[in-house]
Amino acid sequence: MSAPELIRIVSRDSPMALAQVERVRAELAALYPDTATEVVPVRTTGDKWMGDLSKVEGKGAFTKEVDAALLAGEADLAVHCVKDIPADRPLPAGTTFAAFLQRDDIRDALVHPEGLTLDELPDGTRIGTSSVRRVAQLAASHPHLTCVPFRGNANRRLAKLADGEVDALLLAVAGLHRIGRPDVISEVLSPETICPPIGAGVLALQCREYDTNTIDMVSALNHPGTYREITAERMFLHVLQGHCNSPIAGYAKSQRNGDLSLRACVFTPDGKTVLNAHEWAGPLDPATLGTSVAVALLRQGARELIDTIAH
Question: What is the pLDDT of residue 194?
């Protein structure tokens, strides 16, 4: 393998996305000290549009411009949060995943200025979130709270909270750590309290499929356990064909002995209907586990539930 002298890394230009790129640069530098890296930041549709994501291609709004820069040869490597990459359609033709970094915390965090926990919040507390997954689960478990549509990067949401636009926020634990703000966390919520999104806490590294030199280098950063978890999760989501307005949650967990489990849920937006499935597999293809869990939910009526939600 002939190592390139420079790897250009494209990413969203938000503070969190750029912090994620710095992690990738550091891991590459540790393995390839003679290869330089350069950041190519782009502003995505999802970062510019503060309305309903379903009106601008859903989650693809956070990846389209990044993918375009990669395909145009303006960069050699793209860094994505897996949770932002649509699973109901293939990756853009000509691109491939080269690695999944070791998974960070998958849990959500409550941010409250006075440090209250979720169960301590009084009736009518305004929770800032535009996640249909979080809204549905809060509606089911804490119906006395009010969810307020809230878009923008984590720093912007924290600023809006400080200005009193809402009373509390739900944000990803991993994201708050990436921007250096774990100090604002009032409570870390277990996956049993708020089930995380598919792909939570994982960074994906994407290359042009014919760029074998870069793929070979970057693949050294792949974490095998995380790879298995994400393969199961994304196959699950692909079989369900969920869209950005589908309250779908789930996470896989790999064990040291090779066993893999996948727990997943599908909700109605009002949280009144919750479908659950949880299966274990040994050293089977993780995609088989993802398919099996999706089929279990389809048998419970997930297809009808998803199709009744406008998008």
Answer: 96
